[in-house]
């Protein structure tokens, strides 16, 4: 209970005025108001997001996308526990993603939109879930040293690939086709799918992928071996901000960097890192850098998918998210000239910057 200025007791969100009312010898039941409505929806939304991530990894979403109606037993098959499968589907039913009808699962009215966005949920839960869970630990200043957090980088790579497939990767394909790539370096290559697509579409093209995360490197190497592209594509484990010496870098004519450019920041480190790319890849004619820029203002009802998660994750990791204007300043200072900007809506606030080396006396020394 709370007390108003007039001294009157007033029910709070956790108490009802009827809590102390007596009807005969019975006390009226306590009825907290948060058990349904917005507060309850927050709880259920978390469960649904977790179920979406699991359903994606287990292949359940792909099955339902292909079949639209499928027996739950068939979805479980010989390997999965049918009770767990049903539990995941029932959770998805709360959000209208799936409708459970007896022993069958049916694609619900929101299935197609959610399926298209599955990469965001997988990135959030499987990729970054541990970091969110340990947010209280990493909040302490004295603990933010060394490798103070952990993410599942294999899941981050898979989620990022699915996120990019909607709009970013088709845009890359269009631009790369017009450039006539001979050798491409993909920085923060993740699963290696961009390199594979370029090599598949251009039989003469070669590729080098660089990633610091062992999980992503292993995933990319496995994908390249499975595609039979080992002789044309190499994956190097290394830090993009401290690139290893590699004689193959001199052959690179196009550099791509997707969803990891913010790792260059803050400003001076970004300028130095972008300038180092010119030295490491002396014959590069283009740098195609795509990233999500910082959103202005406070979040509200129109806040887009990904935005809150992306910005909070990077705050937890201590990674600065630059604005568009800050990126443009860094490019100029590092000796890269802007050729074109290509805004994208998926992911929200994304921009693909197309750049070429500019004449810079400082870099020519």
UniProtKB/TrEMBL annotation:
Q: Which controlled-vocabulary keywords does the entry list?
A: Methyltransferase, Transferase
Indicate yes or no for the key word Methyltransferase. yes
In this protein, which residues make up the domain named Methyltransferase? 186-279
Q: Which InterPro entries match?
A: COMT-like (IPR016461), Methyltransf_25 (IPR041698), SAM-dependent_MTases_sf (IPR029063), WH-like_DNA-bd_sf (IPR036388)
Under Gene3D superfamilies, the record lists: Vaccinia Virus protein VP39 (3.40.50.150), Winged helix-like DNA-binding domain superfamily/Winged helix DNA-binding domain (1.10.10.10)
Q: Name one GO biological process term.
A: methylation
Q: What CDD domains has UniProt attached to this entry? A: AdoMet_MTases
| Short name of one Pfam family | Methyltransf_25
Can you provide one Gene Ontology molecular function annotated for this UniProt record?
methyltransferase activity
Protein name, as recorded:
Methyltransferase domain-containing protein
């Amino acid at each position: 209970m709370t007390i108003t200025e007039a001294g009157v007791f007033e029910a709070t969100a956790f108490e009802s005025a009827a809590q102390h009312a007596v009807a005969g010898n019975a006390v009226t039941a306590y009825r907290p108001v948060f058990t349904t409505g917005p507060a309850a929806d927050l709880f259920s939304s978390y469960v649904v997001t977790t179920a979406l991530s699991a359903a994606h990894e287990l292949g359940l979403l792909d099955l339902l996308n292909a079949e639209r109606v499928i027996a739950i037993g068939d979805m479980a098959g010989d390997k999965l526990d049918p009770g767990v499968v049903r539990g995941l589907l029932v959770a998805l039913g709360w959000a209208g993603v799936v409708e459970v009808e007896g022993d069958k699962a049916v694609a619900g009215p929101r299935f197609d939109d959610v399926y298209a966005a599955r990469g965001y949920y997988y990135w959030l839960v499987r990729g970054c879930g541990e970091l969110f869970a340990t947010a209280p630990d990493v909040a302490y200043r004295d603990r933010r040293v060394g490798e103070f957090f952990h993410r599942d980088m294999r899941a981050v790579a898979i989620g990022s690939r699915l996120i990019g497939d909607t709009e970013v990767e088709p845009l890359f394909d269009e631009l790369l086709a017009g450039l006539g790539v001979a050798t491409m370096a993909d920085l923060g290559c993740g699963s290696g799918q961009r390199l594979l697509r370029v090599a598949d579409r251009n039989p003469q093209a070669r590729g080098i992928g660089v990633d610091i995360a062992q999980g992503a490197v292993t995933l990319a190497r496995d994908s390249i071996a499975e595609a039979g592209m080992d002789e044309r594509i190499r994956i190097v484990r290394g830090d993009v901000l401290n690139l290893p010496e590699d004689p193959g870098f001199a052959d690179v004519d196009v550099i791509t960097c997707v969803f990891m450019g913010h790792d260059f920041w803050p400003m001076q480190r970004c300028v130095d890192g972008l300038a180092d790319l010119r030295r490491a890849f002396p014959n590069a004619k283009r740098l195609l850098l795509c990233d999500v820029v910082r959103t202005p203002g406070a979040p509200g009802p129109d806040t887009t998918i990904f935005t809150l998660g992306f910005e909070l994750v990077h705050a937890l990791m201590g990674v600065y998210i630059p604005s568009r204007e800050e990126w443009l300043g860094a490019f100029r200072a590092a000796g890269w000239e802007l050729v074109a900007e290509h805004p994208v809506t998926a992911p929200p606030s994304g921009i693909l910057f197309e750049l070429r080396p500019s004449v810079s006396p400082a870099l020519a020394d």
